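In this supplementary section we document a worked example of the pipeline. Step one takes a protein sequence of length 213 as its only input; no multiple sequence alignment statistics are reported here. Step two produces a three-dimensional model, which step three serialises into structure tokens for compact storage. The input and output of this example are shown verbatim.
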Amino acid sequence: MAKQTDSSLEPIYRLWGWVLFTWSLYRYFLKLPEWVDEFIAKPLVFVAPVLWYVLKKEKRTLESVGLTGKNFFNSVYIGLGFGMVFAIEGIAAHAIKYGSVDVNPIAAFRDYGFFLIVISLATAFSEEVLSRGFIFNRIYEKTKNLPYAALIGSVLFVLLHIPILVTTTKLTGMTLVLFFVTDLVLALANSMLFVYTGSLVAPILVHIFWNMT
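The serialised model returned by step three reads:
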């Protein structure tokens, strides 16, 4: 049974590996504006392979990766509630990183406008479709082991951020540790929200709040 489970997960891990490989090459060789990264590159690299695999290889619907209106309003309420919690966590992480709390949403919107919300939405959508809707969900379906699926899916989510750490942010020391810890907590929480709601709405909302803070 274990060998059958491992074998059935190979295509999932293989797809994740190709996404990481392609994203690493993109980050290393191309230095394009952020809007290109989030609105063009990520949908092509993160989302398109998932849609192809689900629709063509599995012959399943998009609802199987959480793209559904089921429990929509309940998911919105839950997402907003947990989103506020993660916004507070983001502020705390900012305080640890910079040594002070400096939250000025008016200045942020003056500089970035609603682009801040839109780009956070784009980022959250691409990453959640791949990481929660597909990777975590398929591991959970195959293994029937929620703690295992949540942990492995969350670790794979964190590893997807290594290319940007190496090529752009170049975090070190406590800031780097904090980045990994908060990303892992975000991934674990969103895995639970996905299981509870059966939808990506709540995880995407939480992810948006986290990105914005």
